[in-house]
Amino acid sequence: MRVQRSEGSGDEALAAAFAAHERWAFSEAYRQNASLLYSAAYNVLGNADEAKDCVADAIARLWRARHPYSPGRGSLRNFLVVCVRNEAISRRRRHVRRARVEERLAALASDAEPFDAEDPIERDRVRSALIALPPEQRTAIALAFYGGKTHTEIAAELQEPLGTIKSRIKLGLRKLAAALGHPTAREHDVR
Amino acid sequence: MMHEQVADLAELYALGALGDSDRAAVDEHVRRCATCAQLLAGAERDVALIASMEPQHAAPRELEARVERTLQNRPQAWPYAAAIAAAVAIGLLPSLYILSQTNALHRSMLAQAAATERLAGAPHRMAHFRTTPGMPPAEIVYAPDGSWYLVLVHGAAKTLSVAWMHDGTRTMLGDAVPQGHLASLYLPKSHRMDRIALMDGDRVVAEATLNWQKTSLSHPTGRFA
User: Fold this and answer.
1) Under CATH, to which class is A98-191 assigned?
2) pLDDT at B102 > cutoff 70
3) CA distance linking residue B114 with residue B51, whole number of Å
4) Which of B1, B118, B190, B199 has its CA 20 to 30 A from that of A149?
5) For chain B, where do the domains classified as CATH 2.60.40 start and end?
6) B76–chain A Cβ distance below 8 A for any pair
7) What percent of chain A has pLDDT over 70?
8) Contact assessment for residue A59 and residue B66, using Cβ atoms and an 8 Å cutoff
9) pTM over 0.90
10) Is a pLDDT exceeding 90 seen at residue A83?
11) Cα B171 to Cα B197: distance, rounded to the nearest angstrom
């Protein structure tokens, strides 16, 4: 029986080795994504020391996990970014850094000050895409992405049913990804 | 947690908008469900895209050293999980043999006994199969020098064939026969195989990529004591 052979890329080999708990794969995955992971943590926590703790703890948690990752889960890079962000959000929930959250939400809501971006072009794209969302979706996304709030907290804060908040976040996130021009954004799902 | 619940929560998970218990429930489900894992991957891709457009900061150099120090401490529990699972299955085999003295089971027992002997003293690696929807999780434990392989399918309801995918061909290696909750196949070999598939009839239902890179050969996955 003849079948077409598909060669595994370097990324696939790294992902497979990461899933198999190979130490070199953890090192390499960190090195390839170090600044992205650190930035993801820093942008949530707003503090260099806490961002370092967060990234180190997230990697350690995966290292200790029996099943750290499955290639079926998608790109290893995306998986790591979400892991680090979730770790950062959990930390922030514990420390409750409300001032920074309120400041960012206020900036979004008022459409006033631009973000203090290192790359203003890219930052403006995110900001423009956020502002282009329907207000109720924008607020729900912002409370989750920047505010680090759970869906139940968002529902309580906005005094809306939980199902409504879930729908707003789901639709808003897909619209945002499509607007930012992700090559494989799930445009068919965007309404 | 059911498929519908995970579909409902995927975006919330990726955005970090779930509480710890919901997040853990999603993690547990997607570990065993390829369909929901793909769904979650889509949401994670969207969030990672947005995160990558946030201000970027160079990672401090000391952070890499800290990560490396973490990785020097190999956890004690997980590297041996597959080998222990195999050993448990092997321990059950004598009683199964009494109940059903089929030739297939006999061959399997001999193979599992050989696997135990080899696993007991040998370094080994493990790769997870990428499974199609509905397929149970599966792993392949193998020697760093390619001298043996052990395919394990958890919760398999029927026999699956194991094939080596190479040079545009499939070479059939044998069958993983369910015994209790585990189907397994031990393969003594003398060469390295880089892609192994599980087949249900003519259909490939899972595939694993084995890693033979030199850098990792000096760091075998573990030693089963």
Assistant:
1) mainly alpha
2) no
3) 50
4) B1
5) 78-223
6) no
7) 74
8) no
9) no
10) yes
11) 10
Among A100-114, B166-180, B191-205, which is the least confidently predicted range?
A100-114
Mutation test of the interface with chain A: which of B211, B214, B216, choosing the one with the most A Cβ atoms within 10 A? Answer: B211
SS3 B135: coil
Query: Distance from B158 to chain A by nearest Cα, in Å?
Result: 22
CATH code 1.25.40 for B78-223: no
A23/B219 Cβ within 8 A: yes
Determine which helix (DSSP H) or strand (DSSP E) holds B77, and give its type and residue range: none
Mean pLDDT value of segment B182-204 = 85
Distance (Å, whole) CA B28 – CA B14 = 15
Say whether residue B50 is in contact with chain A using an 8 A CB cutoff. yes
Q: What is the CATH code of the structural domain delimited by A10-96?
A: 1.10.1740.10
Instruction: Kindly provide the residue ranges of all beta strands, DSSP E only, lying in B61-192, ordered along the sequence.
Output: 123-128, 130-131, 138-142, 148-154, 160-166, 169-179, 182-188
What are the residue ranges spanned by the domains of chain A?
A: 10-96, 98-191
ipTM beyond 0.85? no
CA distance A34 to chain B (A): 6
